[in-house]
Structure formats: C-alpha cells, structure tokens
Amino acid sequence: MVSIFKDIEKLKEKDWFSSNYIPEKIIKGPLDEEKIKEISEIKNEPKWMLKKRLEGFRAFKKLPMPNFGPKIEINFDEINYFSSPLYPKPRSWDELPSFIKETFIKLGLSKKEIEILAGIEFQFDSIPIFKKIREKLEEFGIIFTSLDEAVINYPKLVKKYFGKIVSPYENKFAALNTAVWSGGVFIYIPKDVKLEFPLHAYFRVNLEKMGQFERTLIIADENSEVNYVEGCSASIYSIASLHAAVVEVIAKKGSKVKYYTIQNWSKNVYNLVTKRAYLEDYSKVQWTSIELGSKVTMLYPSLILNNNCLGEIYNLSIAHNNQHIDSGGKLIFNGKNSKGLIISKGIAIGENAKSTSRFDIFINKNSENSIVISKCDSLSIDSGKVETIPRIVVNENKCYFNHEGKNEIIDNEKIFFLTSKGINENKAKELIFFGFIDDIINYLPDFFKLELKKILSINLEEYGGFG
Amino acid sequence: MKMLRVKNLSAKIENKVILKDISFEIDKNSISAIIGPNGSGKTILARCILNDKLIEKSGKIFFEDIDITNLETDKIAKLGIYLSMQQQPEIEYIKTFQFLKYLGFKKLEEIKKIGEELSLPKDFLERGINERFSGGEKKKFELLLIKLLNPKLIIFDEIDSGLDIQSIDYLINFIENELRNGKTFLIISHNVNFLERMNIKKFFVLVNGEIKKECNKEVLEIIKKNGFNI
Q1: Which single residue of A86, A250, A288, A431 has CA 20 to 30 Å from B150?
Q2: Which domains does chain B have, with CATH numbers?
Q3: Are A120 and A92 in contact (CB under 8 A)?
Q4: What is this structure's pTM?
C-alpha cells in the first residue's frame, strides 16, 4: 500500500548509496592479521586492544557457523570490515531516499531532528538540550562516550571488562566483532549514582553508534542505577549486509540496569547480535528488545545471575514478508535466591515471514531457591510461520520454574467474524495485533511506548494492512 | 422493494463448484428459511451475501436495491445485514468490552444487564470475544450483538444448534419480537421442529448447490416423511 517497500526495491536497482557514498578509508575482506593491525593503528589503539582483536580473529577462524536457526549466507571475503566514515552523509534533505524521508515525517520529527538523525547536521553541542544533558552527566561523574574514545581515555576500565562477559569464543560473530569492532557506546555509572532520566543514544548522534561491528560496554558500579536506550524507531538503511554487534553489561553489587533496544534495520541486513549481562549479588538487570527490521536477526539477550538477583527479559519480534527473526533469551543461574523472568512475543506476518522464540534456561547446581517464569506467545497473520523452542536445564532440586506458551493464528474465520459485524478488515487485524502485544507493552516505560506506537503503525501500514 | 434479491448466483471455493445459478427473493419484515442436507451449500450461500473473500462468485446480490455483490464485508454489515455464523471463532486477544466499544457501544452497564438476561458468563465483557464460551453461550452472544447493532436483515446459520430447550424458547420469542419491530429473517437450519414453531413465509430447498424448490410451510411435513428427496 504505502511505498516504503517499493522504494527499497528501487534502491537495489539504482544502488542509491553506493553512487553517493565515498568512504575515505575502507578495509575489505578477506580478513587477515595485517588488516586487523591496520584497523588498530588507524584508531591509535594501545597494544592490549590489538591483542584482544587478534584473539578474536583466531576464535573467528576456529568457530563454526551457528548450527541452528535461520539460514545465513555470508561471503566473509566480500565484507567491508572497516570504513570511515561508517555511514554516508547525505549532503541535503533531497538526497535522502524517499522511504527514509517518509518515515521521518510520519514519526512527527521536526526538521532539525531529522537533520540530526540523517547525519546532515553535526553541530549539536549547540543544541541546548544536549548541552544540558552533558553538563548533568559530568556533574555526576558519569562517563558516556564512544567505546573507541574510551579505549584511549579510560584504558583501565575498558581493559578490565572488555570481553570478560562476552568471550570471543562465545560464537563466530562475537569473535568477529572482537576482531574488527568499531563504534558503539561506553557508559560508566559511579557508585551510588542514580540517573533519573534514560541515557539515549540520540544524545550522542555523533558517536558512530550505528557501526556494522559496534561494541557496547556498560559498567554500573555498586548501588548505581541507569537506563539506556539504544536504537532508533526510524528505519535505518544500511549499505552493509552484516551487523554483528556485541553488548556487555556489568551490574555490580546492588545496582540496577535497564537496557532498551529498538532494532529497525533495513530489510537487507543480517543482524547477529550477542548481548550479555553479568549480575553481581543483589543487582537487577532488565533487557527489553523490540525487533522490527533486518532480513535475519539472531538475538538472545542473556543474563548471568549470582545471589539474590532479579533478571528480566522482554522481547517483542515482528517479522513480515521475507524476514526471519530468531530471538528469545537466556538465563543462567549461578547463585541462590535469584529470580528470572522471560516474556517473549513473536509475530510473523505473511507467508515468507518467520518468527522464532528460543529460550535457554540453566538452573545450575547449588543455585537454591531460584525462581523462573517464562512465557512465550506467538501470533501468525496471513500464514506467517511461528515457532517456539524452549529449553530448561535444571541441576538443582530446590527451585521453581514454569513455562507457558500460546499460539494464535489470525485466520479468515476470525477476520470474517469481525468484518461481518461491521469492523474494517485492517482495523480487525490491528485490534488483534495490539491485543496480542498489550501485556508486553504494559512493561515498557512511557517514552518507549510512544516510540513503539509510532513505529508500529508505520510498519503495519507498510505491510499493506492495518491502515 | 424487496429486502434481498439474489440473481443467478454461482459460487466456487478453491475451484470446487458449490452453488449453481441460484436466484431467490426475500420480502421485507418476513421470515424465510433455507433448508437442505449437509453439504448442500447453505452456509456458503449465507457467506456469499456478506461477500466472504475466500469465495469466488458470479451473479448479483441486491440489498434494498443496493448492489452489494462486491462490497466489502464490513460495509455490507453496516448497511444492516447481520450474519450469525454457523460456528463462532474465539478471539482471545480482543477483549469483548473493547470490541463493543469499537463498534460504538459504550454503555457497558446496560450491556451487562443484557448479558445477565441471556445468562452469559458474569465476566464476559472482560474476556476475549467468545473466549471459553460454550456452544450455547456463543449463540447467545450473537443475540446480544443483534440487540445492540439493530440490523434490518438477520441471517441465522444454525442458530438453534447447541441451544437447550429453554434457550430455544427464548430464541423463538426473540425472533417473534424482532419481527414485530419490523425486522427480516433468513434462517438456515436442519431442525424441522424448530422451524415449525415460527411463521415462516418462504422455504428454499437447497440440494447440491441448487434451489430445488421454493415452497411454503407444508414442505416441512414432506421432509419429515421423505427427507430431502422431494
């Protein structure tokens, strides 16, 4: 109905970006140690970081492709592993592809905001709100910077934690990220500091936050609190076909971290992300992800829980047309008296769409009094495929766990019932859709709900229904 | 002006011919019935009137002289045709009160009273549409919707199945009342005993996708004796 998909098709033909985007520096595959050294040199990194990169590269070579989930066809020899600048900067509003413009307009963003998001206007220290936020962060001693800068400016902190939560041997794509990472965010919240407003990646648009191999490291010191929002509801067109990001969160004793993601990459991208948080005693971490974009996504945010922790994972995946979103969550109990919660909603719209919910829960020996509640619902619209694969491994008798799953199919009978009562077909689908995601929406903070509502009506329109 | 006119209607589902060149008319403020053996195409005929898009059809259907043949289902409903489907789906993710609100009925207290009168489950408004309803409760919920939507033509596809004797009495009373209020009914049923109890003006006997006969109440006696071999 609305032309957003059509535009992407056109874009493929015309190769809009490649004709406009001339990076100053590109390092292309096949990847070898020399090229990794070059990346490290360009970034003026200390030796220890190069060592970690090379270790990552060795792991990458050794590790096989994932033996589960969606089909991944990547020719590693043809990937650009490093480019500077990471993203093309259109010189004017007119140069933006129309699907991006359309999305921006529908989001109700002002021209100023559009220019920032589009990467046109980079002078944003001059925008009062951003300046205020920065001053406030400095006052608290909070570090909020790109990880690239942090390697240079805060080497002790980065060296101590980088790769400790997500080892390069975790999986092939985490290994690749370790070898060639670039861009991403570093956050450090000092002891006892409780930040009352969410840190949003928007505040630092000039970070190369949308890197192909971005890497995020968050350290919440004892009894601190922070909420971080990653991603952007506007559809992001990427020239790169592979995004392999890594996120590591360290929640120290008594701290609280909430991490929100909206992923809306264009439909040509393999989005293979490893996210993991380590919870020290009495800490709380919450992962919330809304997965809308990409061609293929594999993402299972995981939590390692010690004593008396609370870990929560909320996931909403919407795959349509030719997308396959494979997501869910992992809980690993290594301590006593901790609680874990996973709620996942997977939606597939259209015959070639697939949504997979994959749960992995390990209650290890001696993690007495662990409590796990996991719930996974899926919704199929217009013959979309949905599947759920829960796995619970229990090695401790004194614990409680449950799993609940439901599948809902919107078929002709339901739609005919509703339309024959006078409800328009698109509205009927929309009512079921929003009813389905209602309970997960209730867990989201208000600013996120708003963002989501905007983006959902846009995406649903794109799909051709739900007007 | 006739309430409903069906002219030369043929219908196919997945290339299988279900209805062959059907024509009939229904008078305003009357009860008509479609009877016939299983698989004769009664339900498909009812769904053709509401333009179910899974059915491929030719011919014409007029409602109060408006050509509704290819109108979207919701628009046909809004003109004043109500179809009570043979089987009501359960729609868990739309709460009944939301559904009713969306249809424009906001006085939930009044609706609750109607629900009590119909002996629907006490919490029916908070449940999904038809969620955990018995067969009979689903039919009763249809009656509630008719009371609220106030349509002109009501098509009942086996409304009597799943209802106990008491509820059948209620239903017949309901139909008689609504007839006095000027409504028109098209009733699809197997149940001769049920059909006998109403003042039905026209019977259309549907066999193998064709209307074999248009007749009056006497046909019920023949069916009782000989089945549909008439």
Answers
A1: A431
A2: 4-87+149-161+184-226 (3.40.50.300)
A3: yes
A4: 0.81
